[in-house]
């Protein structure tokens, strides 16, 4: 993701998360940590026909990765785009030499929870009232022993969602987009 991706990402962010969308300033702040020799972030976008249809971000500190955000446009739900974004973020965690990867997901977002479970994430806790406004709880999930368990992510998701290399040329693929 680069600075010129922020506006289209914000449009998608507001559509998908109208009550708790990230601000422009938050994306700028995250991107400020995504470049240079001391980078601690990896942000990606998936584009189709020049339009952003998905994005994701990872922070890495002290060999722990934290998936900050991941989203796919509703029109691409069930196409494997979310899985491809997750594969790219996990690859980024490997490049940061992370030993574990954490994330938070809304307690009512069972679709995302199932995706994360297919990639080896397990629930480890609950953050009450994490998503504001609305006081929605977050399930904290962890993928431990990341390098040792990385083979399952490299192989891709289970058979019910296509891996990145199975996507058709006209489908969005985060491997074909800006990554920084």
TrEMBL record:
Residues of the N-acetyltransferase domain: 1-146
Residue segments, region Disordered: 142-180
Superkingdom, taxonomy of origin: Bacteria
Enzyme Commission no: 2.3.1.266
Keyword Transferase: yes
GO molecular function, one term: protein-N-terminal-alanine acetyltransferase activity
Biased composition (Low complexity): 159-172
Annotated SUPFAM superfamilies: Acyl-CoA N-acyltransferases (Nat)
Keywords: Acyltransferase, Ribonucleoprotein, Ribosomal protein, Transferase
GO cellular component: ribosome
Protein name listed in UniProt: Ribosomal protein S18-alanine N-acetyltransferase
Species the sequence originates in: Streptomyces pathocidini
